C-alpha cells in the first residue's frame, strides 16, 4: 500500500514495464509481433496481474484482454496495447497498459471509486494483421469475414490460424456495452520530440490527426539503358524524383503548422540496372488534424500533376487510397489531464495533436476519449532504441492516475 | 540456289526468323529465357539447320551451339544468341544467328570460300544466369566454379540443374583455338532510334561502350511519419530524389555527345507508408566509349556527394561496383561492312558506337571483331513490340553476307 492511496506507485510501474520488456527482449527493446509467442505470454502476464486490481480477467476471441469489474454504474475504461512493431521499443503500448493497470490498482482499492476503473489491452494496434483490429472489434466495426481475411503482413499466417494456435479460436468477442463506460483514457509515449525539446512532462492530446494516403503513378517508356539517347527518353523514375523534390519545395507554403507528409515507398518498374523505368510508383501520405488543410494540399498535389501532364515527357496520376478522419479528444478529459499535470508535474504540460494513430481514435467513435503523452528521448519511435526517462515514466503514471480520479469525480 | 550465288536469300532469312519466333511465342515476340524449353528447342532447330551450310553441329557443355567446318586454314566466325529477355522481342539475338547461318549457307557452297564461315550461338547473352557466360566460356574467362555458382535470377534454378535437365551435363566446353579464326562478325538490331531517325539501313559499329555501375547509398534517420516534425526529419528517400534531380541538371554540362546514364532501381528502407526512410539506395550506371568522359562524370558524382555530406541532413556514399571497359571494333572489318553497304544498301550506313553490350565485346578480347546493326522500329528494345521492317532485315542479310565475303577476301 503506497503512502498516499491515491497516487501511483512509481517503482511498481517501472517493475511491471521491465517485466514486460523481459518477454521477447530485443537489444534494449522488444520483438513482439501480434500473436507471436512473446505477445501471448505478455497477454497471459496481464491476465495474472488484473485480479490484484480487483478485476476479472479474460482474453476474448480477437485477442483483446479485458479486466472487468462487478461494480454497478458507469466506469472509466483505460488501456493501450501489448504487441510491438518488429524489433521495436519497449514502451510503445505497454506504457499505457501498465498505467491503466496502476490506475485500477490505486483507484479500485479506494473506497471512493472501488471498481470504477476497467482495463483493456487492444490487440494488433500495430497493424500486423490489419488496421486497429482489436479496438475496432470492440466498437463494432469488425465482422467475422474481416477476421477470415486478415493475414500477417510479414509471415502470411492467417489470423484464424494464429487464433487457433493460441487457443483463442471460437471464443466470443467482447463488444462495448452502451452506458457501461463514462469514457476512455489512454497513455502513450509521444513518439516525437515536442515534449523533450520544450522540457515538458505531459502532452494533453487535443486530437488524433487524420491520415490521407495516396498512390502516385508515373508512366514513361521502358527502354534499353544503353541504346536510348538521353534526348528521347521517357524515364518514369526521374519524373518521380522531380515530383518528390517539387513537393518538398511547394508544400511548405500551403501546409499547416504541424502538417507532415512522407514518401514511404518508391518502386521503379522493372527495377533493373540496365533498363529505363517505364513506370514508377510512390506511396505518399499527408497527416493533419484539419481536413481543410489537407484538402488544400491535395489540390496542390493535383495542380502539380496537371503541370507535369501538360509540360513533361511522362504522365502522372494521383489516386487517393485512404482517408483517416481526425478524432477530437474530449475537452473535459483534457481539462482533467491538465489539472493533474498542474498538481503533480509542475504544470509542465502542453496541449498538442497526436501525429500517430492510436486505439483512442476508435474508442472516440462511441464514447468520450482522451490521451496523455510522456516524452520520447530524441523523439525516436518504432525502433529498439525508443526510450523515456524513468522519472518521466513515474511522473506520467502519477498524472494518469490523478486524471482518472478527476474524470471519475467530475 | 539464288540467282546470284554470293547474295543472301531474303525469303529464306525471313522464314528462318519466323520459324524461331514460332518457338516460345509471346504476342508478336517471344518468351525464351536461357535453358527454358523453347530455348532448348531453338538450339535444336539450329543444330538441324547447320548441316545445310556444310557444317557439323554440336551443343557444348555450357549450351553454346557451334557449326564447325573441316576446311583447313583460318575461318570467319559469325553468330549471336538464341535466348531472349523475359517476354521480349523476336529479333534480339536470332537475327545475328540467322544471318550467320545464311552467310555460311551462301559462302560455304561458293567454291572460292568453301567451308570458310563457322557459326556460333552463344548461350545466355541476356544474362539470366550471369554475364555473357557462353562467349566468356569460349574466350577462356569462365571456370567450372563460375558455373557451379551460376543461378537463374528469376527462378533461382542453378545452372548445373538446368544443364542436367537439358542433357548437357558433363559435356566438354568448346574453347577458342588460336589461329582457327581470322575474326568474328555479329549482326544485331540497333535497339535505339539512330538509324531509323536518319533513314539509314546499316550501322557500322565502331566500339561497344563500357558500362560503369554505381551503388549510391543515403543514410538519414528512420522515424515515425506522423510524429516527427518536418523541421527535424532526416529523410533518406528525399535526399535520394534530390540527388537524382541534381544528376539530371548537372551531368549534361560534363558528358560526351553520346553518354547515357540511368537510375534503374530505387529502394527505400523500410519502405512502409508510415515510416520515414532511414536509408535509401539507388543503382546508377554510366555508359560511354571514352573512359576519360566517364572519369569526369564520376568525379562530378563524387563532388556532388561531397556537397550533400557537407551541407545536407543526410549523408551519401558513392560506391563503384562495376567497370566494363569499352571494346574497339576492328577497323578493317568496319571498312568491309561499309563497302558492302555501298554495294547493296545505297551507302545508307553510319559509323556508330553500340550503347548495349554484346558477345562481340568478349570475342574482341582474343580476335578481330566487328558488328553490323539494322534499324529498330521506334528504337524499341527488350519489349515484345520490338521489330524491324522486313525490307531492312533482308538488306541487312545481304550486307552481312557481302561483308563476310569481303573480310574473307581481304
Q: Helix and strand layout, with pairings?
A:
The structure is a homodimer of 410-residue chains.
Chain A: H1 10-21, E1 25-26, E2 29-30, H2 37-49, E3 56-59, E4 65-68, E5 75-80, H3 94-107, E6 117-121, H4 133-138, H5 144-149, H6 159-165, E7 181-189, H7 194-197, E8 202-208, E9 210-219, E10 223-224, H8 236-250, E11 260-269, E12 275-276, E13 279-288, H9 291-311, E14 315-323, E15 327-328, H10 331-344, E16 349-354, H11 359-363, E17 369-374, H12 390-409
Parallel strand pairs in A: 5-6, 5-7, 7-17, 8-16
Antiparallel strand pairs in A: 1-2, 3-4, 4-6, 8-15, 8-17, 9-13, 9-14, 10-12, 11-13
Helix pairs in contact in A: 1-3, 1-12, 3-12, 8-9, 10-12
What are the defining features of this structure?
410 residues; four-stranded antiparallel β-sheet; Aminopeptidase; homodimer; 17 strands; alpha+beta; 12 helices; 2 domains
Task: Give a quick rundown of the structure.
The structure is a homodimer. Chain A has about 400 residues and is of the alpha+beta class.
Describe the model.
The structure is a homodimer of 410-residue chains. Chain A is an alpha+beta fold and 410 residues long. The first copy, chain A, folds into 2 domains: 10-207 and 327-409, Zn peptidases (Aminopeptidase), CATH 3.40.630; 210-323, Alpha-Beta Plaits (2-Layer Sandwich). Chain A is 33% helix and 23% strand. The first copy, chain A, is built from 12 helices and 17 strands. Chain A has helices at residues 10-21, 37-49, 94-107, 133-138, 144-149, 159-165, 194-197, 236-250, 291-311, 331-344, 359-363, 390-409; strands at residues 25-26, 29-30, 56-59, 65-68, 75-80, 117-121, 181-189, 202-208, 210-219, 223-224, 260-269, 275-276, 279-288, 315-323, 327-328, 349-354, 369-374. In chain A, the strands form 4 sheets. In chain A, strands 3, 4, 5, 6, 7, 8, 15, 16 and 17 form a 9-stranded mixed sheet that branches. In chain A, a hairpin with a 2-residue loop joins strand 1 (25-26) and strand 2 (29-30). In chain A, helix 3 (94-107) crosses helix 12. The radius of gyration of chain A is 23 Å and the shape is globular. Chain A starts with 9 loop residues before the first helix and ends with a helix. The model of chain A has no long low-confidence stretch (mean pLDDT 95). At the A-B interface, strand 10, helix 8, strand 11, strand 12 and strand 13 of A face strand 10, helix 8, strand 11, strand 12 and strand 13 of B.
Amino acid at each position: 500500500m503506497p503512502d498516499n492511496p491515491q497516487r501511483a506507485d512509481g517503482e511498481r510501474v517501472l517493475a511491471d514495464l521491465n517485466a514486460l520488456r523481459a518477454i521477447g527482449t530485443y537489444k534494449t527493446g522488444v520483438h513482439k509481433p501480434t500473436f507471436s509467442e512473446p505477445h501471448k505470454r505478455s497477454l497471459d502476464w496481464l491476465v495474472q496481474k488484473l485480479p490484484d486490481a480487483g478485476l476479472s480477467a479474460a482474453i476474448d476471441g480477437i485477442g483483446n484482454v479485458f479486466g472487468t469489474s462487478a461494480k454497478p454504474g458507469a466506469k472509466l475504461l483505460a488501456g493501450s496495447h501489448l504487441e510491438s512493431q518488429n524489433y521495436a521499443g519497449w514502451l510503445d503500448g505497454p506504457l499505457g497498459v501498465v498505467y491503466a493497470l496502476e490506475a485500477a490498482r490505486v483507484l479500485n482499492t479506494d473506497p471512493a471509486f472501488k471498481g470504477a476503473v476497467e482495463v483493456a489491452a487492444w490487440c494488433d494496434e500495430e497493424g500486423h494483421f490489419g488496421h486497429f483490429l482489436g479496438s475496432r472489434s470492440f466498437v463494432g466495426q469488425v465482422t467475422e469475414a474481416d477476421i477470415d481475411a486478415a493475414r500477417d503482413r510479414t509471415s502470411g499466417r492467417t489470423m484464424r490460424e494464429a487464433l487457433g494456435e493460441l487457443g483463442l479460436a471460437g471464443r466470443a468477442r467482447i463488444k462495448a456495452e452502451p452506458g457501461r463506460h463514462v469514457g476512455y483514457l489512454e497513455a502513450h509515449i509521444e513518439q516525437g520530440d515536442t515534449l523533450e525539446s520544450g522540457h515538458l512532462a505531459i502532452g494533453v492530446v487535443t486530437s488524433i490527426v487524420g491520415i490521407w494516403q495516396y498512390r502516385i503513378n508515373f508512366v514513361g517508356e521502358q527502354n534499353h539503358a544503353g541504346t536510348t539517347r538521353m534526348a528521347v527518353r521517357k524515364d518514369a523514375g526521374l519524373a518521380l524524383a522531380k515530383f518528390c523534390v517539387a513537393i518538398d519545395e511547394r508544400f511548405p507554403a500551403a501546409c499547416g503548422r504541424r502538417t507532415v507528409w512522407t514518401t514511404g515507398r518508391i518502386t521503379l518498374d522493372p527495377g533493373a540496372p540496365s533498363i529505363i523505368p517505364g513506370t514508377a510508383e510512390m506511396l505518399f501520405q499527408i497527416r493533419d488534424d484539419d481536413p481543410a488543410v489537407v484538402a488544400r494540399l491535395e489540390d496542390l498535389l493535383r495542380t502539380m500533376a496537371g503541370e507535369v501532364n501538360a509540360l513533361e515527357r511522362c504522365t502522372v496520376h494521383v489516386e487517393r487510397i485512404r482517408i483517416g478522419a481526425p478524432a477530437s479528444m474530449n475537452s473535459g478529459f483534457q481539462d482533467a489531464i491538465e489539472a493533474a499535470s498542474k498538481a503533480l508535474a509542475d504544470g509542465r504540460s502542453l496541449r498538442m495533436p497526436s501525429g500517430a494513430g492510436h486505439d483512442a481514435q476508435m474508442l472516440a467513435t462511441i464514447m468520450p476519449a482522451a490521451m496523455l503523452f510522456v516524452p520520447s528521448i530524441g523523439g525516436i519511435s518504432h525502433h529498439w532504441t525508443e526510450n523515456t526517462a524513468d522519472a518521466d515514466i513515474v511522473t506520467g503514471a502519477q498524472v494518469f492516475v490523478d486524471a482518472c480520479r478527476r474524470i471519475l469525480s467530475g
